Amino acid sequence: MSWLKVELDEGRTSFRPGEVVRGTASWSLDGPPAAVEVRLIWFTQGKGDRDVGLVESVPAAAPGIQGGLSFAFTLPDGPYSFSGTLVSLLWAVEAVALPASDAALTELVVSPSGREILLPRETPDAGAR
Fold it and tell me: What is the pTM of this model?
């Protein structure tokens, strides 16, 4: 049975823009992969189309059936992590083995405060004023 895992140094998952996210990806696969890479991504979740942004990726030099890969990503200035009524924006580090597309994902929070930004909820009569 295949598995991939992403572990962040010190288990830390909250960051500010410009900070460095460090960790290790490890895997054990059923067959030899064509490629394994670790990616820093952001994505939207909620109503409407899903948007995904690839910020940076680190490929494993010669991935085998089992292995590990250390990574360090410097976070960009944005976008910030947020949750709203209809959509949220999340950050993650993911490890992907190709061509099978086996994957593991560890979510992050990225904002100036190191906490997810909660957008105000609209009330049904907010536009009537």
Answer: 0.89
How many angstroms separate the CA atoms of 90 and 52, rounded?
Answer: 10
Per-residue pLDDT of the chain (129 residues; tens, 9 = 90+): 899 999 999 999 999 999 999 999 999 999 999 999 999 999 999 998 899 999 999 999 999 999 999 999 999 999 999 999 999 999 999 999 999 889 999 999 999 999 999 998 766 665 555
**Number of structural domains the chain divides into:** 1
| CATH at residue 81 | 2.60.40.640
Largest CA distance in the chain: 62
Range of the domain at 55: 3-111
Residue 71 domain flag = yes
Structure tokens at 52: 């995904």
